[in-house]
Amino acid sequence: MLLSTATEASTATATTTTTTKATPTSSPDKKKKKRIVVAVGGNALQRRGDRLTIENMLKAAAEMAPTLAELAKENELVLTHGNGPQVGELALERSAASFDVLGAESMGQIGYVLAQALQSAGCTAIPILTQVVVDQYSDAFKDPSKFVGPIYGSIEAQALAQSLGWTVKPDGEYFRRVVPSPPPMEILQIEAIKTLIEHSPGTLTIACGGGGIPVARVPANPQTLIGVEAVIDKDACGAKLANEIEADGYIILTDGGGIWENFGKPDAREMKEATPEYLKGTKTGEKFPGSMGPKVQALIDFVERSNKPGVWAAVGDLKDCAKIVAGEEGTFIRRDVKNGVTWRTGKKGPPRKESKNPPPF
Questions:
Q1: Burial class (CB in 10 A: 0-12, 13-18, 19+), 31
Q2: 288 FRET partner, CA 20 to 30 A, in 51, 120, 148, 269?
């Protein structure tokens, strides 16, 4: 509210009237929005058993969009996403293309699909083609570990490796192509992302899709960038993004819920809250280096690297997104948790699915 007051002062020669305006005060009832980064896996746009088509991607995006749009009304939401199935499909179609180019193509494709679905749900979303600097001489390039593309038998895999220069590794009883997965070092479009968040309220920013387009600086001329044959882990990049924009929370959405002890066994139980120290001390997720392991590490990294008080990270099922924000579902990582960990009661863990056939991507 603007308050105006008139003060009259009389002197021997004149009477002067002065009008002053008080500084406006914000309403005490207005709740400050939380800044939250939400990471959605690439598999969220490809349902199990469905073909990877634009139609199926649009359908899946339309189903998740209303929840994300509602969260964006109440929070400063930034969305990032995986691209495993999509970049694997593109790599099959264009075997001669490098993974930085394929990553850019998948980012544009998925960004369009998500933006269209969110706009239909009443939320304006702006995808940003994001380049992320990596160290092209890091150990990740000495031992590629990121699985991409479909499964192959041993003879076919070796033939492809020789003819196309691929690196292949066993994935169960089959073989798949692997590419380096270096850690993110620098998000080049971070200032543009911050500008959208701070000066375009109500707009949802989509950034660092697929972990970002991997690029490196030329040592002799650091201003010059070159593309890198790699796929950056989107959860690790999401954690860095959340730290860079000083987010209050970081959520990783999966199709398997939170963090479970004895997953798939009769005595399985889900963590409600845990500290980074507890997770590291119990080596949580290390038995699953291709799935939960990188997610747990990304959650820990965000909480430990943040300078903000009260920050949190969470992991949970995509369908429970709103309940995760409300603290009713998923596993939360915080700095201060009594005894290091608490457990959700009355929940039975999902059965572990054993299969000789790994997923197609």
A1: exposed
A2: 51
Integer Cα distance of 164 and 252 in angstroms:
34
Whose CA is closest to 247, among 193, 185, 324? 193
Task: Answer yes or no: are the C-beta atoms of 93 and 196 closer than 8 Å.
Answer: no
CA-to-CA dists, residue 335 to 46, 150, 233, 311, 360, angstroms: 35, 40, 24, 8, 38
CA distances from 60 to 14, 136, 183, 282 (A): 75, 35, 29, 36
Cβ proximity of 236 and 183 under 8 Å: yes
| Active centre residues (catalytic) | 42-43, 146, 234, 295
Do 172 and 228 contact (CB within 8 A), yes or no?
no
> Out of 3.40.50.300, 3.20.20.10, 3.40.1160.10, 3.40.50.20, which CATH number does the structure's domain 32-134+191-343 have?
3.40.1160.10
**One-letter identity of residue 61:** A
- pLDDT tens sequence for the chain (361 residues): 333 333 334 444 444 444 444 444 444 445 688 999 999 987 777 665 567 788 888 988 999 999 999 999 999 999 999 988 888 888 888 878 999 999 999 999 999 999 999 999 999 999 999 999 999 999 999 988 888 777 789 999 999 899 888 899 988 788 988 889 999 999 999 999 999 999 998 899 999 999 999 999 999 999 999 999 999 999 999 999 999 999 999 999 987 789 988 877 888 899 999 999 999 999 887 765 556 888 999 999 999 999 999 999 999 988 888 899 889 999 999 999 999 999 998 666 555 444 344 333 3
> Do 188 and 224 touch, CB atoms closer than 8 A?
no
* Residue 298, helix vs strand vs coil: helix
